[in-house]
Each structure stands twice: as structure tokens, then as C-alpha cells.
Amino acid sequence: MALELYLDLFSQPCRSVYIFAKKNNISFDFKKLSLLDGQQYGEDFGKISLIRKVPALRDGDFCLAESVAIMLYLAEKFKTPDFWYPADLRQRARVNEYLSWQHTAIRMHGSKIFWLRVRSPSLICVGAVRLVMSYLSSLPFIGLLAQRESCSEPLSAWRDRVQEAVGKELFDEAHQYILGAQESVKSMDSSKMQVYKPKILRLFM
Ligand SMILES: N[C@@H](CCC(=O)N[C@@H](CS)C(=O)NCC(=O)O)C(=O)O
Asked: Are 134 and 47 found together in one domain?
């Protein structure tokens, strides 16, 4: 049975797993799970992931959640080149340091930006958006983003470095869905999205 990855490329942790697996020529069955259609709440997916989030992996009778755990599993199982997850104790510790840090320091704010960018009136009322905006502008990371003059250069330089390391084709393929997210959200069935309301509000309040 081929290794399965349950992914929705709208999701940043899914894109990292996807790029990691593709870049390392790890063959897998791409099991598309549409978050906007609420497929994570389906009975079948509940058997794959107790936490009902993507990414998720199934390798035979073994299921795994959490992007970092999945990438480390793949790195060890497929013995990816050493630079991905170095054997050297201190270099590995440096990778672990970043992997531990990114969840709360970058990822969390990325989710907020995503929901703000795709916000739809059916999801968040105008008052909540105003509150969110004033809250976000007080965060250093978002503050940096807002000051485009001073930060757009390092951010785009960082993005370009990642794109170069990953390869433009794979980078663009992995990001095409998120770049079209504002359009996709307009055409979605808003009744399916009601379940997201409390999750979105929890992110901001
Ligand atoms: N810490 C987890 C985060 C996974 C996560 O939050 N996935 C989101 C998409 S980015 C999800 O599946 N959300 C579905 C839901 O909350 O219903 C990881 O790194 O894999």
C-alpha cells in the first residue's frame, strides 16, 4: 500500500509537507482533503486523524498528524540528504529549535493573515474585523508587515531564497491554490463555513 498524504494546499503545514516530499522524490498518494468543504469532519478522515486536521499521513496501518512529525518521519524513513535533518547533534538541535519556534512565532500569525485576506461577510462581521485589525497592528510581526517600506525587501528576499532552494516550478505549483484563495472563498458554500466562525474568532480574541 502506497504511503498516503492527506493535504489541502490552502494550508501552510500541508504545503511544507508536500514540498518536502516532492523535493525528495518520495512517492505518495495525494489524498486531497478540502477544508473549505469541511471534509475534515467526515467519518473516514476521523479514522486517519484524531485531531481532524491536515496534513495527515497514513503508511500502512500507521497514521500520523502534525506537519513537523510527518516531515521528520519521512526524513528518517527515506533517509533524505543530511542537510534536511543533520545527524550532527548541534546542527540537528538548530533545526529542532526553528521547528519548535515557528508554530507560535510565524504560523499562528500566518493563519490570521489568511483569514483577514479571504474574509467574507458571511464569516466575520465588520465590527469583529475592525477589532482584529487594531489587535493585529499591535503585534510586532504584523506591524512589520504593515510597514511595507521597511520590511518588504527582507521578506521578499527571504521568499526568493526559499523559491530558489525549492525550485520555481514546485514552489509555484504548491502556492497556486493559496494565491487564488480570495477568489475561491467567494464561490464557496457559506453554510459549510459556519463551523469555522468560532475557530476564526478564537484566533483573534
Ligand atoms: N500544528 C499542526 C497544524 C495543523 C492545522 O492547523 N491544520 C489546519 C489547516 S492549516 C486544519 O486542518 N484545520 C482544520 C480545522 O481546524 O477544522 C501542523 O503543523 O500540522
From this structure: no
Here the cell at position 196 is 469555522
Distance 200 CA to ligand 1 centre (A): 12
Which of 17, 48, 83 terminates a domain? The answer is 83
Strand ranges of the sheet holding 4-7, from the earlier edge strand across to the other edge: 29-32, 4-7, 56-59, 62-65
The Cα-based distances of 58 to 13, 21, 74, 147 in angstroms read 16, 14, 11, 42
Q: Which atom of ligand 1 is nearest to the CA of 38?
A: 17
Whole-structure pTM value: 0.81
Looking at the structure of the chain, the number of domains it has is 2
Give residue-wise pLDDT tens across range 71-97.
Answer: 999 999 999 999 999 999 999 999 999
* Beta-carbon contacts of residue 112 (< 8 Å; ≥ 6 apart): 132, 136, 142, 203, 204
CA of 25 to the centre of ligand 1 (A): 24
Per-residue pLDDT of 115-144, as tens digits, reads: 777 665 555 444 444 444 454 444 444 333
